[in-house]
Amino acid sequence: DRDTDKKRIEELLEENMVLEIAQKQSMNESAHLGWELEQLSKSTDLADTRKSFVFELNECASSRILKLEKDNQSLQNTIQELRDASLTSRESSLKFVELEKENQQLSKKIEKLQNQIEKEKQSNQDLETLSEELIKDKEQLQVVMETLKADKDREVQ
Fold first, then answer.
1. Tell me: the pLDDT tens digits for 91-108?
2. Where does the pLDDT of residue 14 fall: very low under 50, low under 70, confident under 90, or very high at 90 and above?
3. pTM score, whole prediction
4. pLDDT average, residue stretch 32-55
5. Contacts of 26 (CB under 8 A, 6+ apart)
6. How far is the CA of 82 from the CAs of 48, 72, 87, 134, in angstroms?
7. In sequence order, which residues have a C-beta less than 8 Å from that of residue 120 and are 6 or more positions away?
8. Are 69 and 19 in contact (CB under 8 A)?
9. What does the CA dihedral 148, 136, 39, 20 come to, rounded to 10 degrees?
10. Among 27, 123, 126, 137, which one is most buried in terms of CB atoms within 10 A?
């Protein structure tokens, strides 16, 4: 039973490491998306709107990641407590079941976060496309305005 428990603890630790790696990747992707949005926002008139959107996006992703990190740390603490306390096999089994449930919940949260990041990426791309279209429209309007102004100046002369 103890060998089984030790193996299970090792499996849970490995799974936690995988979750941490996925979490860090999500953080990196989110940070990169934020950086890309900031770069885009510097070149358009919609800078304030984009910056606030990027800030909200980063804050949202950061808060979710922090929550997942706290959950992960809690699981690691629980595993350490189990090792230190040398619980009976029955108690260990119950704790492992709880840990498995928590790990499943964490996995679901990470999956949801990754899905949301994908949605946010798509939203960012849509915003970028819209921004480019607005810039083109603005340039066209400026050309039309310049043409109308030139026509008006000619009429006045």
1. 667 777 888 888 888 888
2. very high
3. 0.40
4. 69
5. 61, 65, 110, 113, 114, 117
6. 51, 15, 6, 59
7. 33, 57, 61
8. no
9. 150
10. 27
